[in-house]
Amino acid sequence: MSSFKPLVFSGVQPTGNLHLGNYLGAIRKFVALQETHDCIYCVVDLHSITAQLVHEDLVEQTRSITAAFLASGIDPKKHIVFNQSRVPQHAELAWIFNCVARIGWMNRMTQFKDKAGKDRENASLGLLAYPSLMAADILVYRATHVPVGDDQKQHLELTRDIAIKFNNDFSRKIGELGLGVEMKMGEETVNGFFPLTEPLIEGPATRVMSLRDGSKKMSKSDPSDLSRINLTDDADTISKKIRKAKTDPEALPSDVEGLKGRPEAENLVGIYAALAECPREQVIRDFGGQQFSAFKPALADLAVEKLAPIASEMRRISADRAYVDSVLRDGGQRAGAQAEATMKGVREIIGLLTD
Length: 355
Hints:
With 355 residues, the chain is mainly α. It has 13 helices and seven strands. The strands form three sheets. The protein has a three-stranded parallel beta sheet with strand order 1-2-3. Strands 4-7 form a two-stranded parallel ribbon.
């Protein structure tokens, strides 16, 4: 190869209902990227057991995320949609990456510290090591780009660190086997088997906050359903949640700088900008000086216009289990063929004896 083929990979965990933050921060970008890139989109069911081993119905959660992908406009024929556990090469490469990555790298991961809390000794090994699995998810397809939110940038940096170490450690063998791409690593040129995956961070609302607390990220695990807009919410529920969203007593400012120190106001303006696909400055020009009693109904109408059709289509697709399962089965077969091609090279490079 003279270069790595451009390819986008991303995944979503099947835990709880997908919400507005997932849609604006990830799924809508997935849909847009289809127009310019080859894409692989994965329901990462193996990741879902790192923090919580026992789930009431992981199968249905997996189908629900798939339905959300399809309802939002992802084309499973032109691109690939599948669930992670169908392709065992993810786990195989993750083990190899566990041996590439250093314990110190894992200990620096802020999400592990957040999720493990004070009782780190009682956290699962999977929770500590899951960034290796995330790196394997991406690099088993030698993906060149990943659409990520701000909170995932550290994991992508780890993916790049793992690729760099693998490429450096095995450069000679990669070259001998003719499996690599010449890459500059500082002053040196090495034979790289894995690309240094780049992040794709775009749009005015890559981080959507809770409707009840503008300092916290919108989350599927928040005990208050009023904190988020679920993709399955109907029009009345969407409107109700926006009406009840926490704000402050001041009017909207006359410029974007005036949003500083007002997290709830900044969040609602950011959501409006993202849904309308316009800069926040435009929202302030249209609504600056107005009270939230005027702004919230406009935001509710816009959210219903954009999200209600997705919710309706999601319900329709979810009702057809056979179709959803056929999409995942077909996607798994196609993804597996690509993943196996990569793993064949990895096994040769490392020196694992196979038939």
